[in-house]
Amino acid sequence: MIFKNSILDENQLYDLALFRVSSRCKNHWPDSFKSIFYVLLCPLEAYIFEVCRFKPLASAWYPPPKELLKFNVDGAVWGSFGLAGIGGILRDHKGNILDKFSKVAGLLDPSSAELQAILAVCRRLQGSARFSSYRLII
Q: CA 64 → CA 12, 24, 67, 68, 98, distances in Å?
């Protein structure tokens, strides 16, 4: 995986994704989420139930620029730790669906489910000749 002109292995990508998820959670729920570094060190212990009290943020899909493809991913968990599912959808700048997947991911916490979805996309596209000429947004 190439990120900002650097080649990342699977562990570096996992750490980067975990840091980004942690940062986003801390930004959205500053009073109810432990520090980013705590999340990096102890991801299973960092989940806080108070997060669920807040109104969910509205979201919309925004198309990527013409020269890019966009792979949106999601992880869902039953409770704070339980059976998880992951999935994703790859679209071009017109919104055309080029690829999609979903699968059971085992027992995970919510952050790990999101990260597993990102890793699944990377593994899925790693050997794909079909999408090798495109740059990708995940």
A: 24, 20, 8, 6, 13
